[in-house]
Amino acid sequence: MTRSVPALVLASALVLGGCTGMSDTEQRTVSGGAIGAGVGAVGTALTGGCVSCGAALGGAVGAGAGYLMGKDKEDDKKK
To answer: pTM of the predicted model, to two decimals?
Structure first.
């Protein structure tokens, strides 16, 4: 267990460090996808469904919603 903690910290830093150069819309898309995947996985686990299917569908819906929200915010800034 103690060996996996540094590896997890390093992996988290690499993943989060890759998000620094993204636009607001891209960040919202990625965040929406991650949140959607988490909610989809938990929801299907609680209902006894296919967890990976729920995560994939939730991630797709979340990414789409995040993209639309990001574009809407971009349009508001242009006005």
So the answer is: 0.71
